[in-house]
Every structure is written in C-alpha cells, then in structure tokens.
Design brief:
The protein has 4 helices and no strands. It has helices spanning about 15-30, 35-50, 55-90, 95-130. It is found in: Cell membrane.
Length: about 130
C-alpha cells in the first residue's frame, strides 16, 4: 500500500489506487531484495547481448519470457519468505523452512530453464561469429 494509505483495510476503489499500491510493491522488492537486483542486472546484460547479436522476433520473445519468468518467480519467492516470517513471527519452523526452500527452488528451476533457452539462442549466434 502507498505510504499515505498504510491503514487501508478495504479494496482499492480505483485503478490508479491499485496501480500505486502495485508500483509500491515493485519499488520495495528492488530496494530490499539483493537477488532481484542481481536478476535485473543480468536481464540488462542479456538484452544488450541480444541487441548486439540482432536476435530475430521469436528469439526476442523467448528472451523476454525468460526475463519475465525470473522476475515473477523471484517476486513470489519474496512473498513466500515474507509470509512465512509473518506467520512464524520470525521464529524457526520446519514447515516454514520447507516453504522457503520450495519457493527458492522455483527460482532455481526458472533460472535453469532460462539458462538453457539462453544457450540455445546465443551459442549458435556466437558460434557463427567465431567461425566467420
């Protein structure tokens, strides 16, 4: 929720209000989560490589989908971690640990698939540059 609306308990009344709250969440995750910043840096690096290698339209779609999946899974991982901390009041819980591990596992799976897709797209293009 936006700073001025910290005590809001009912649904958002306007699209603008919903957007402001959502944007606040995006800003918070970038400020507080090191891994989100790392994913974003890698996204910029990948975009620069893609631009430099002149990817085709379909290749761009895959790259954008991979970047989006990474940012979304990292966001859900953060949500899971915060919910576990809220429910357990930041005390150790075996179930809480499993939940956090599974959420982190989702990020790892997305990263592995994104890496494989990146290799499938970039390796042939780099190979062609090297042999020509």
């Amino acid at each position: 929720m936006a700073l001025k609306d910290k005590k809001q308990t009912e649904k958002n009344h306007t699209f603008k209000q919903s957007f402001v709250h959502a944007w606040s969440g995006v800003i918070r995750i970038f400020r507080e989560e090191r891994n989100m910043r790392i994913h974003s840096i890698w996204a910029v690096i990948v975009i620069l490589f893609a631009w430099g290698l002149r990817l085709t339209g379909p290749e761009w779609y895959w790259i954008i989908a991979c970047i989006g999946s990474m940012l979304v899974t990292e966001t859900f991982n953060t949500v899971a971690e915060n919910l576990v901390d809220l429910v357990t009041e930041k005390t150790y819980s075996e179930l809480g640990k499993h939940i956090k591990d599974m959420a982190a596992g989702a990020v790892l799976i997305a990263a592995c698939f994104s890496g494989i897709i990146g290799l499938c797209i970039f390796v042939p293009k780099i190979w062609m540059l090297l042999i020509h």
